[in-house]
Design brief:
Layout (H helix, E strand, L loop, with lengths): L6 H5 L7 E5 L3 H9 L4 E4 L3 H4 L11 H12 L6 E5 L9 H13 L5 E5 L5 H9 L4 E6 L5 H4 L9 H17 L3 E5 L3 H10 L4 E4 L7 E4 L1 H4 L17 H18 L13 H9 L7
Parallel strand pairs: 1-2, 1-8, 2-3, 3-4, 4-5, 5-6, 6-7, 7-8
The structure holds 3-methyl-2-oxobutanoic acid (KIV).
The site of 3-methyl-2-oxobutanoic acid has 11 residues, from β6.
């Protein structure tokens, strides 16, 4: 578990040991993910939902993504740090996409970037890959397209859309992505895509027939009190634990049990004596 994970190492894991990926948005969460053995830490634009309180991921821009990516890379994790490209940062032109991806790398310290979309994104993916920046693709239920898709709906249930996603996966592979996130697609389709491409697939709400899994940090650890999608398995209850811990602290403040003498700084006896002699205790 010592070698720094690189994009080529991830690429070479196709069909091998399952890839373990989780999101993180700051230095402590990146340290936790790394200590737990993550292969990939994604600074996801889910930042908008789980950290910044927005309804959709459309609400974060480059500056926020660079800021949080830099916080994650300061943890210097063994895991590969992937910076997520926010809404509209890769839709306008290949040139602009390269500049934005470059910011995540240069200012944010990312080691790869991820961007949402299929065949339409091929010129952008090619331009970024040509700039020596590793790109992770992301297809299926792509949250930045929520309005275009008409809601957060599982994608690829009909023959036409399933064929479209297979074509997207092949096109992104040909454009040079080193890995592909499959989000919110039927498990059978995820298995077909996984068999159809030579790059690893990483699923979220895509079943088991993929090369790895990713979940959002706050979902998997129960670090919020919101609803969880069906595909999330929660392994801890940090929100409830934190409420209980702060409640205990506030209870001790109310009762005077906090702080104890051991939790306070003692004044040297000599200083206390001389202040008392001068009447310091009465403020004179
Ligand atoms: O932003 C995010 O968290 C993501 C993953 C869930 C894949 O894109």
């Amino acid at each position: 578990m010592s070698d720094k994970v690189t994009a080529p190492m991830v690429r070479a894991r196709k069909g091998g040991a399952k890839l373990k990926m989780v999101t993180a948005y700051d230095t402590p969460s990146a340290r936790i993910a790394d200590r737990a053995g993550a292969d990939i830490i994604l600074v996801g634009d889910s930042l908008a939902n789980v950290v910044l309180g927005f309804e959709t991921t459309l609400r974060v821009g480059m500056d926020e993504m660079v800021h949080h990516t830099a916080a994650v890379s300061r943890a210097a994790p063994r895991a590969l740090v992937v910076g997520d490209m926010p809404f509209l940062s890769f839709a306008v032109s290949p040139e602009e996409t390269v500049r934005h991806a470059g910011r995540l790398m240069r200012e944010g310290g990312a080691e790869a970037v991820k961007l949402e979309g299929g065949r339409k994104r091929v010129p952008m993916v090619e331009a970024v890959v040509n700039a020596e920046i590793p790109v992770m693709g992301h297809i299926g239920l792509t949250p930045q397209s929520v309005h275009a898709l008409g809601g957060f709906r599982v994608q690829g249930k009909e023959p036409e859309t399933a064929r479209g996603l297979l074509a997207d996966a092949r096109a992104l592979e040909a454009a040079g992505v080193f890995a592909l996130v499959l989000e919110g697609v039927p498990d059978t389709l995820a298995g077909m895509i996984t068999a159809a491409v030579t790059v690893p697939t990483i699923g979220i709400g895509a079943g088991a027939a993929v090369d790895g899994q990713v979940l959002v940090f706050h979902d998997v650890l129960g670090y919020h009190d919101g609803r969880l999608p069906k595909f999330v398995r929660r392994y801890a209850h940090l929100f409830d634990d934190a409420v209980a811990a702060l409640g205990a602290f506030f209870g001790d403040v109310e009762s005077g049990a906090f702080p104890s003498a051991e939790e306070a700084y003692a004044m040297p006896a000599e200083t206390a004596r001389s202040l008392l002699e001068e009447g310091g205790a009465s403020g004179g």
